[in-house]
Amino acid sequence: MRVEQRENDEAEGMKSSRPAARRLQIAAAVVIVAYGLMLVIDLAAHPDKYQWDFSSYYYAGQAYIRGMNPYDLHVLSEVAGKEVGFPFAYSPVVLPLFALLARLNILTAYYLFLGLKLLCLGGLLYLWARRLLREEVDLLFYVLVLFGFGGAVYVDLAAGNISLLEQVGLWLAFYALLKDRPLAFSGLVVLVSLVKLSPILFLVLLPLVGGRRRLTALGGAFLAFVGINAVTWFLAPDLYRDFLAVIPQLDDRGIINPSTLALFRDLADILTRRGIGLSPVMPEVAYLAFAAAVALVTGLALRRVRGEDRRVTIFIVCLAFILVAPRFKNYSYILALVPAFYLVKRWIRLEASWAMLLLLMFSSSMPVPFGLGAAAQNLLWGYYSLLLTLLLWALSVWVAILGPADQIRSDPLPGAVPDAGRGRTLRRPRSGA
């Protein structure tokens, strides 16, 4: 009787706690939505303060219409009638699109661009939550989207960069690859890479993930990318040369550009100021060696994940891409949000105590010898997103290479059946096939 009574009491306690937990979740969701709306209202109410990158796009479009050089910062300032703080640094392919915006009043174009970015964010949330993560999504995911990696989503909205538009193309490409549609994947990757060249590296996913027609898609995508850039060079050689010339001039570092190459350059500057003579090319050499090591270790890790959920392969490659990209701005860390959430929750599986210990290690006053405490503090906070990505990548590949065998499990996509002989998945035949 006592055992039965205790079980009844526990059942009643669970029932009574559920409504309270539900109310807490609803209250937290309301707070998150309200906070996000306040941020958007602030962006809309102060067009003079925000979307500075969009200003560069807008005046570059006007310079293009007038036949002037949109890659010359002085030209942009002349066209704007005021100082423009950031150069235009994207391929000439997109200049006709910005020229369309430039034909509008700048305030109208500002709100149109902001509205487009918000639509992209809504589409990404749907794609992430309902198509990619599915049952994994909880309230913590939306908190991560709002605040994760230095508030990358908000930084993109405030800066007025095209990163959210780029992310839509990339995540649609990843979703196509998950559905075993390599041609759609490669086409979307090429489309995104026409703006910022580096995303073409994601074509490496075709041989890593496997599937049908992957070599055909890989070859076709490479030819399309080279061909479109060659045609652009032929049609607008001066613009293309100016585009290539402006890229090496970009040397943002720290919290604005927490990339690996920028970190090595900052480290070299610190050592030089300390009287340690270094070759001027040492940061680039160190970066290339680091990138090669990341690529090698990632490749070795993913060989063991062949039969695993394809999301793991894609997400680990996303983290590796961030580490090897020579330039990776703070708003671009939107790319890391979904991989970080999924890998921590389903792949790395850190205990809560580990997370707490990691948090306790960070402070504003670290025990660093040789009088380098201030430099270390600046590097930590300036490159926090990069270091966090490095940690997540290292833990992910460690699990893939050295983790227990039962963790490297097969988790095929819906609509696929496991191929036990080869450790991969095959599509189920369509009805009537």
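[next item in queue]
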Amino acid sequence: MRVKRGVTSHKRHQKIRKATKGMSKSNRSSVRRGRQAVTKALQHATRDRKNRKRTFRQLWNARINAAARLHDTTYSQLISGLKKANVSIDRKILSELAVNEPKSFEAIVKAAK
């Protein structure tokens, strides 16, 4: 008995079309171009999830450095002082303190000196 494959193909094509919603015309309408676009988009998504972590760490370090220089020290001296003083606070929280809680950041800088 012959098996007609229309249902399977249609389902597969619909999956591609759903994933390409919001893309430009040819990527949306052509299944072949759409599959390529989805593959590339997923590659970029994976790469950029890694890069987001890198970018935020750079931002935190820049904020910490700017706030540290207001208290007559540098980023590297501050981090070194915190390690020697056994103050375990990560850079994300340190940058939040630098931006939103200047008094508590000043206390941390004094502890590091």
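[queue empty]
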